[in-house]
Design a protein that fits this description.
The protein has about 700 residues and is of the alpha+beta class. It has a domain at about 5-245. The chain has 17 helices and 33 strands. Helix 10 (about 470-475) packs across helix 14 (about 550-570).
């Protein structure tokens, strides 16, 4: 399904699956044609043609942000809508190979992909989930599930897929009204797959829609807004139910008793202490038992650590991601590129308490118009349009703008000056045909992504980094960079003079540069047993599919990225922790990678808490455990200042007057929790 993860680097198969929309493969005519529309612009297409032997032949391709999949499929459909055999070839969003086949025959299911193969007894009515496939296949998979008793089907690995009808509406089509129904399929991923079918006996595919993304029959694009509005309502109803099941009210006075607590400003673990919360704020920190205050709630902190809520400083949030962040202890995110109206609506819903999620700090995204444009925020064709965009963001209270790949280098200085005049900071990618040091000199306050920093040392003026070159060039050349070289030292000194921060997003590149097909995704290997079953197989799928020779060059290049991150920290360049990937889980891995880069665990925790809050402009309310600040906290089983891996063991997440059960949130995502929940006890009033 098309999820907002498609804006990010896909780190595992679940993201690859999520990035694909769903359309029908059941064509009554010789061919069906569909358009892929992104932010109102046609970005690709799919054709489905029936061959002479009844097989379906699919061509599917789209482009967004200079990248996207290209694939060709052939498959046959048998009784009860099941696909009997299947073949796909092509390239993935980041250029990796797509190659997979499977067949149901003689009571067996056999498959062969670029990363694995299998031969097992076929379950009655069973279905198969490829690593990567076209929208046509996903629609057929839904139809197969709907055709089974109870609308349930089994996939390899024991995954139980289930589908249900959620809503029905009529939309306007070229020939008049079209009745359509919304279905959700669960059991395959952390979120349901939402699919619109024609509401008649055929249940033929009609559309898949997400904010800014639509797959629909050619000529039916105008139905998108109505479909989206009803689908978002259905999603909101589900998320409201999850919030109700996972929330624990904290009225009056709450005591977290005898707990270690992290002093983020000093990067040191303190205590044990008693921490009192009142009316959504931190009210007191005292030695254990120092106050006889009669709290309404008591939480045992023995053996646990209390941290300020974590900050993901490079998120692209959508409603379904909100609970993924919160389950992992991420109570605040900075969103660095999104659809502005949808993001502000989501932020308002979280702030009103309608759905569970982190506090959201939006950045104002500005991109230049080009064939490689990312279609988020505001896309401008001239400097004057860019200056107006800065003004519009300032008028709406944004604290930061983010510039992107297709901004012309000569625009950076005036755009940054306008932002600074409004009291805003400037972050972003380094525009194509520009180097990081030039961006800093022109006014950047923050550089996003360590690959953008690395390019500074070898990119040529004629090389277009709006393409996949911004990844492949780093893979080939970064291994040659020495962090103690005069060139690197001069660049680091420049960052220090300007006070420029860096958002490395090391986790977004770990698999990209170090994983070969058939090897487990290193960023998620430590949590594989906690993931939905269909996600696990995809962890063997490399998004760039490097050859053995390429991997021999890319892996030392990634080591240099780690070394550069450590060197930046040691030199006093401010770092912030962001993911640009899988919500929650990837932030934990990001922090582990900082430790691997040579940064002590307590300092890593400061980066993920105090640095984030301060640089996001939220240090007055968040980022440290101090009297008067918001109760914006996460309780961890163990001590992550000694073992950063303990950061995954969230046992309670506190936002203001409420706490959230990580177990309930993870279970709603089809994941196994990482620790038992801390119990919120309600003592009886003392006898008088």
């Amino acid at each position: 399904m098309k999820r907002r993860v498609a804006l990010l680097a896909r780190l595992a198969a679940h993201a690859a699956l999520a990035a694909l929309p769903v359309v029908s493969s059941t064509a009554a005519d010789a061919a069906e044609r569909f358009t892929v529309t992104i932010q109102g612009q046609q970005a690709g297409a799919m054709s489905v043609e029936r061959g002479a032997a009844g097989e379906l032949r699919v061509e599917y391709s789209y482009r967004d942000n200079g990248r996207g999949p290209d694939m060709q499929e052939t498959f046959r459909v048998g009784e009860a809508e099941r696909v009997l055999d299947y073949r796909v070839r092509g390239s993935s969003t980041f250029g990796g190979e797509i190659r997979e086949d499977f067949a149901f025959a003689d009571g067996r299911l056999r498959w062969n992909s670029k990363v694995d193969r299998g031969d097992e007894a076929a379950a009655p009515g069973g279905v198969f989930v490829p690593l990567e496939s076209s929208p046509a296949y996903w629609s057929q998979l839904l139809r197969a599930v709907l055709a089974q008793p109870g609308q349930r089907a089994v996939a390899p690995g024991g995954a139980q897929l289930a589908s249900e009808r959620l809503a029905q509406i009529e939309v306007d089509g070229p020939q008049g009204k079209v009745a359509v129904a919304l279905y959700a399929t669960t059991g395959a991923d952390v979120e349901p797959w939402y699919i619109w079918l024609r509401d008649d006996a055929s249940r033929a595919f009609y559309a898949v829609v997400w904010p800014g993304f639509l797959v629909a029959p050619a000529g039916h694009e105008s139905a998108g807004p109505a479909l989206l509005a009803r689908q978002m309502q259905a999603q909101a109803e589900r998320l409201t139910s999850i919030r109700q099941r996972s929330t624990i009210a904290l009225p009056g006075l709450t005591l977290i008793r005898s707990v270690r607590w992290f002093d983020a400003k000093a990067a040191a673990m303190r205590g044990p202490s008693d921490v009192y919360l009142f009316d959504g704020r931190i009210a007191a920190l005292t030695p254990p038992g120092a106050l006889d205050a009669g709290p309404q709630q008591v939480i045992d902190g023995a053996g646990r650590s209390l941290l300020p809520g974590l900050w993901d400083m490079h998120a692209h949030i959508w409603p379904g991601a909100a609970i993924q962040h919160l389950a992992a202890g991420v109570t605040s995110v900075r969103d660095l590129a999104n659809q502005n109206d949808d993001l502000l609506k989501l932020k308002a819903r979280i702030d009103r308490g309608e759905i569970a999620g982190p506090h959201v700090v939006p950045a104002g995204f500005i991109e230049g118009r080009s064939p490689f444009s990312s279609r988020n925020g505001v896309v401008v064709a001239t400097l004057e349009e860019g200056l107006r965009a800065v003004d519009a963001y300032a008028a709406r209270g944004y604290r930061q703008i983010k510039l992107y790949n297709s901004i012309r280098p000569e625009w950076v200085k005036p755009l940054a000056a306008r932002a600074h005049a409004h009291g805003m900071t400037v972050a972003g990618h380094v525009p194509a045909f520009m180097r990081a040091e030039q961006a800093v000199q022109a006014g950047y306050d923050e550089l996003t992504h360590i690959n953008q920093v690395m390019l500074n040392f070898f990119v040529r003026p004629d090389q277009d980094t709006r393409t996949l070159l911004r990844f492949t060039l780093v893979g080939e050349e970064a291994r040659k960079v020495r962090t103690q070289s005069p060139e690197v030292r001069r660049f680091i000194a420049l960052l220090r003079r300007h006070g420029t921060a860096v958002d490395p997003t090391l986790g977004a590149f770990e698999a990209m540069f170090t994983q070969r097909d058939g090897e487990p995704n290193p960023s998620l290997a430590a949590v594989v047993d906690h993931l939905p079953v269909l996600w696990r197989r995809g962890m063997l799928n490399s998004e760039m599919s490097p050859t053995a020779e390429q991997a021999a060059r890319y892996r030392p290049s990634y080591t240099r990225m780690l070394e550069l991150t450590g060197a930046l920290h040691r030199a006093g360049v401010p770092l912030v922790a962001g993911t640009d990937g899988t919500p929650g889980l990837l932030l934990h891995r990001e922090l582990e990678l900082y430790v691997r880069a040579g940064i002590p665990a307590p300092e890593v925790l400061r980066i993920a808490t105090w640095n984030g809050a301060r640089i996001a402009g939220e240090g007055a309310r968040s980022g440290s455990i101090e009297r008067g600040k918001d109760a914006d906290l996460v309780l961890i089983e163990g001590d992550p200042a000694r073992d950063i891996g303990h950061i995954r063991r969230t046992s309670l997440v506190i936002k203001g007057r409420e706490a959230y059960s990580p177990s309930a949130l993870y279970e709603s995502l089809g994941m196994r929790p990482f620790a038992a929940d801390a119990v919120v006890q309600r003592p009886l009033p003392a006898a008088r």
